[in-house]
Structures are given as C-alpha cells and as structure tokens.
Specification:
Layout: H1 3-32, H2 35-64
Helix pairs in contact: 1-2
C-alpha cells in the first residue's frame, strides 16, 4: 500500500461520520428553521473542506517523501 493511500485510509470512516452529521443538520435546518442546525451545518462543512485540504496536502508530501512534514492539527494552506 502506498503511503498516501494509507494516510487517507485513516480518515475515511471519520469523514463519512461527519458527512452524516452534515446531512442531518441540513435536513433539520430546512425542516425546523432552527439557526443552531444551520450554524452546525456550516461549521461541519467548513471543517470537512479544511480536513480534506490537509489530507490532500499530506498525500502530496508523502508522495515526495516517506514522512509527512505537517503535523496533525496544522493548516495545510
């Protein structure tokens, strides 16, 4: 298994769970109009975008070297 594939695999289940939460908050925001659900939807969506950017950046680094230079929690941008 390639390094980048192994790196991504560690996050797949987590990302799927967050997607489920995004879908639920989206549904509840539309159905109830509750601003809490709209805010949660936006925050989770932003989180997913940042996480995927960080993952892609680390994949690019692991394609070039055997070890990532970005530590977990740092921004990839």
């Amino acid at each position: 298994m390639q390094n980048w594939d192994y790196f991504r695999k560690d996050w797949q289940d987590h990302i799927q769970n967050v997607y489920k939460m995004v879908e639920k908050h989206s549904e509840l925001a539309v159905r109830t109009g509750d601003p809490f659900h709209e805010k949660a939807y936006k925050n989770l969506t932003n989180y997913l975008h940042e996480l995927k950017t960080w993952i892609k950046h680390n994949e690019n680094l692991t394609n070039k070297t055997s070890e990532s230079k970005i530590k977990e929690g740092e921004k990839a941008i």
